[in-house]
Amino acid sequence: MGVPLVIFSVFLGIIAATIALPNERHKLSEKCTFNEDCATGLFCSSCSVEFKGSRCVRSLTTNPFKLLNTSLPFNKYAYLTTHNSFAIKRRPIPDPTPVVTFTNQEDTISQQLSNGVRALMLDTYDFKGDVWLCHSFGGKCHDFTAFEPAINALKEVENFLSSNPSEIVTLILEDYVEVPNGLTNVFIASGLIKYWFPISNMPKDGKDWPLVKDMIAKNYRLIVFGSQKHKEESEGIAYQWNYMVENQYGKDGMVEGKCPKRKDSSELNDRSKSLVLINHFRTIPIQKVTCKVNSEDLINMLSTCHVVAGNRWANFVAVDYYKRSDGGGSFQAVDMLNGKLLCGCDDVHACALGYSCTIRSK
Ligand SMILES: *[C@@H]1O[C@H](CO)[C@@H](O)[C@H](O)[C@H]1NC(C)=O
């Protein structure tokens, strides 16, 4: 990591210097008591499996569209992805039935998006005559596994896209909706249809995606992938596995030095799919240990999967409790991916300084 890490530290130093508050706020990895103790882009968090007490750790992505430019194809950038983005502790809607299922995240979809998350994994089900987000089993949603009607989450995405006209959001749906046009109707009702990226513009033959700046200009700023093949034809919802390869999720995917593919995906090195998604989260999410999962382990897995994917770096990196880390976490991982993808360096900040570290591997 050498040089880019130094550059990165200098960069953080510059951030800290420009803030220049009367009581200088704490930098990355410094001890803290409250979130307000930490500089912008950091929050105060514990990671008892790595260190005692609380330290300032990252809570914000680096936006490559802003730091650099939007002149490259969509598949030349990396995007922080939250797994089960909707499964948060504080249930978004009041409901007398307690949720008896796992949670995977801590803050709302709006907060995730404003912290730089750019892809959301959502599980959609038919429930109560509507489409709901559930964390369920056997393809059926129950009162105790239901989180909220999908429209609530989609409205948060709509709100983000309308207030941020240069951003692109990807939704990756594990879709159990059987009602014809059930999903389409909720996309229409949420106001998201106007941002819909048409499948006719998605490359199926391993070619590059359109340039980000063109997607922004056309307002094609919502990409939706689903898990039901027939809906590509019937509803125009892209079948994820036509465009993307993905590694195994959960425990079976987290074996050091290995990067097996997920059952539904073609081989990771299948270059006819231009996008690469890497999952890195436990089968059973445990917030306390996630800080380790999201730190060095994650960077190592991304390097392992890079090789298995035929020297391709991930475009999407999917995690639980995305802000939990021992320092840079998933944010540093995405900075690395963007560095590799955009200029061959270990950190996207090096690209901004005009460095070109190796020949681009993708
Ligand atoms: C945009 O950024 C990339 C990565 O740093 C660089 O290779 C490219 O030349 C830049 N394009 C423009 C038009 O500035």
Automatic annotation (TrEMBL):
Residues 1-20 form the signal peptide. It comes from the Eukaryota. It holds the Pfam family PI-PLC_cat. GO terms for biological process: lipid metabolic process. Keywords: Signal. The keyword Signal applies. PROSITE patterns: PIPLC_X_DOMAIN. InterPro entries: PI-PLC_domain (IPR051057), PLC-like_Pdiesterase_TIM-brl (IPR017946). GO terms for molecular function: phosphoric diester hydrolase activity. This is PI-PLC X domain-containing protein At5g67130. It comes from Cicer arietinum (Chickpea). The gene is LOC101495182.
